[in-house]
C-alpha cells in the first residue's frame, strides 16, 4: 500500500521549512511605557524668540502603562545635542507631559527646558528619549512638513 506524502515530506523534498514563522504584527506588550506622542516644532506666528513663542514649541511624552513611571534622570535630545534632563519626576499612569522649550514653572503636566533659543528645527529633526542608564526608549523623526507631528 502506498502512503500519501505528508506535508513534511513534501516540504523536505522542496527544501522548505515548515517551522513556525514569527508573527508579523508587533508585540504591543513589548512597547515601552513612555513614548513620544507629539512634537510641535513650529510655534505659531513669527519665530520672535519671545518666551511665549519658545513655549509654543514642545514635545509631549505619554505613559501608556497602568502604573506611574519615574523619569528621574531621563533625557530628551534633538540632533544638535540640545539635551533636557528630567529632575525628580514621575509620570502618572495614562498621563502625559509637555516639555516646552522656554521658561516656566514645572508642573505635573508641563516641564520647561528654559532655553533661550528654539530646539526643534522647522525643516526636520529627530527627538530621542533615553532613560537614566542611557538606553534609547523612543525616537521620533520629522521632515518639517506642517507645524507638528504625531509620533
Strand content: 25-35%
Largest sheet: 5 strands, mixed
Q: Could you say which structural class the secondary elements and strand pairing correspond to?
A: mainly beta
Radius of gyration: 23 Å
Distance between the termini: 62 Å
Fraction of residues in H or I helices: under 10%
- Spans of at least 5 consecutive residues whose pLDDT stays below 50 are 1-29
Total helices: the number is: 2
Averaged pLDDT? 85
**Number of distinct beta strands:** 11
| Strand order, sheet with most strands | 8-7-2-1-11
Instruction: Write down the overall geometry.
Output: globular
Q: Can you write the helix and strand succession as a string?
A: HEHEEEEEEEEEE
Task: Walk me through the structure.
With 151 residues, the protein is mainly beta. It is built from two helices and eleven strands; from the N terminus they run αβαββββββββββ. A five-stranded mixed beta sheet has the order 8-7-2-1-11, with no helix packed on it. The chain has a four-stranded antiparallel beta sheet with strand order 5-4-9-10, with no helix packed on it. A hairpin with a 5-residue loop joins strand 4 and strand 5.
Structure, briefly:
With 151 residues, the chain is mainly β. The protein has two helices and eleven strands. Helices cover 9% and strands 31% of the residues.
Question: How would you describe this structure in keywords?
Answer:
single chain, 151 residues, mainly beta, 5-stranded mixed beta sheet, 4-stranded antiparallel beta sheet, 2 helices, 11 strands, 9% helix, 31% strand, disordered N terminus
Amino acid at each position: 500500500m502506498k502512503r500519501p506524502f505528508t506535508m513534511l515530506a513534501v516540504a523536505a523534498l522542496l527544501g522548505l521549512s515548515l517551522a513556525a514563522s514569527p508573527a508579523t504584527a508587533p508585540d504591543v506588550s513589548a512597547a515601552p511605557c513612555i513614548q513620544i506622542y507629539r512634537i510641535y516644532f513650529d510655534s505659531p506666528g513669527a519665530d520672535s524668540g519671545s518666551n511665549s513663542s519658545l513655549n509654543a514649541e514642545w514635545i509631549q511624552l505619554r505613559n501608556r502603562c497602568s502604573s506611574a513611571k519615574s523619569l528621574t534622570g531621563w533625557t530628551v535630545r534633538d540632533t544638535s545635542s540640545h539635551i533636557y534632563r528630567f529632575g525628580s519626576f514621575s509620570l502618572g499612569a495614562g498621563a502625559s507631559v509637555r516639555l516646552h522649550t522656554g521658561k516656566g514653572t514645572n508642573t505635573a503636566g508641563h516641564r520647561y527646558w528654559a532655553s533661550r533659543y528654539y530646539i526643534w528645527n522647522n525643516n526636520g529633526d529627530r527627538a530621542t528619549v533615553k532613560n537614566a542608564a542611557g538606553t534609547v526608549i523612543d525616537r521620533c523623526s520629522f521632515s518639517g512638513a506642517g507645524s507638528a507631528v504625531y509620533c
